[in-house]
Amino acid sequence: MSFLSATLSRVKPSPTIAVSNKAAEMRAAGADVIGLGAGEPDFDTPAHIRAAGINAIETGKTRYTAVDGIAELKSAICAKFKRDNGLDYTPAQVTVSSGGKQVLYNALMATLNPGDEVVIPAPYWVSYPDMVLLAGGTPVAVECGIDVGFKLTPEALEAAITPKTKWLIFNSPSNPTGAGYTRSELKGLTDVLMRHPHVWVMTDDMYEHLVYDDFTFCTPAEVEPGLYPRTLTTNGVSKAYCMTGWRIGYAAGPVELIAAMRKVQSQSTSNPCSISQWAAVEALNGPHDFIAENNAAFVRRRDLVVEMLNKAEGLTCPVPDGAFYVYPSIAGCIGKTTPKGTLIDTDETFATALLEETGVAVVFGAAFGVSPNFRVSYATADDTLREACTRIQTFCASLS
Description:
- The structure is a single chain.
- A 7-stranded mixed sheet has the order 2-8-7-6-5-3-4, sandwiched between helices. A 3-stranded antiparallel sheet has the order 9-12-11.
- It folds into 2 domains: 6-44 and 290-398, Aspartate Aminotransferase, domain 1, CATH 3.90.1150.10; 63-285, Aspartate Aminotransferase, domain 2 (3-Layer(aba) Sandwich), CATH 3.40.640.
- It has helices spanning 15-28, 47-58, 71-85, 100-111, 127-134, 154-160, 183-194, 220-223, 255-266, 274-285, 289-310, 347-358, 382-398, and strands at residues 34-35, 94-97, 117-122, 138-143, 165-171, 200-204, 231-236, 249-252, 325-326, 360-361, 363-364, 374-377.
- The termini are far apart.
- The longest helix has 22 residues, at 289-310.
- It contains 13 helices and 12 strands.
- Helix 8 (220-223) links the parallel strand 6 (200-204) and strand 7.
- The chain is an alpha/beta fold.
- The relative contact order is 0.17.
């Protein structure tokens, strides 16, 4: 009998973390590696937010807090939801965790029973299916390919729902594709959900403020108020506020669900870092002008990467609406061979060969549920992106 839990056999380690670790190992060994796997901004946390964290240390706000967040942060979150999304929540409807991932995990652990199904549009963030499996549920991936803009259609959602469906996990703009749902597209999905009152909605709005061109963000409970009683609206400060390492995620939803999530957290991590919570208060309540400045850089980087990858032989790279990822197809490379003799039969072999032969680290598409693709994070310097894309172009041109 194995000493380890059988539950672990159902899940795999995060592929994005694995890619970052592999790139770090090669770099430490002296290789010239460009890592495009990590999903975090390269900008520093803004000064006023850092100052709030320093002030929390200097004024002794370093002790345990309430299990799922200080009152000041919950109030700031309620104000944010009202200001940005037109959603009214009370502090009793709000939970704060050590990152958005923990918020989602707490909700799944608090609600899933064996046999419960969770609909997950693919491409998906790599952790969604495995968190469902760890919680004892069954992930139901619905493939949304490049032909539908990597977005779930009402027809596909309708077909995926069964009497066992408990949740739909909804992410817009998307990690890994950057695809965002317009209000009319989202209304088509919420209309389906209104016909199935047993299905709850778990949103992942982490990239809400990282949207470009004329795209306007909206979230399900905002589009369809009828879904409000069965929606967990999840967000965090990691991406837009350049606070990935501070580890603060939050959500709002029905009081009973929030209480159940609090119970899970009370017996796992307890409260999020007190210092990070005070920094998050400043992030939500303080000035936001830096977001537009950062987004201007992201648009420039997005356009650079999209243009260069579309010039690579065998690649097709759609233009994303938000986040800081592109998700190009490598369909034109499948079946070809690298100069070192590697047959490109999957996007995983493509990504492995690209790393080993050019030093560019990307995440293969199968990790996100749709192939043959790979994900590039363009949250890094322009010159670095230009060099990486040049290497990708050279690599693709070398295939025969």
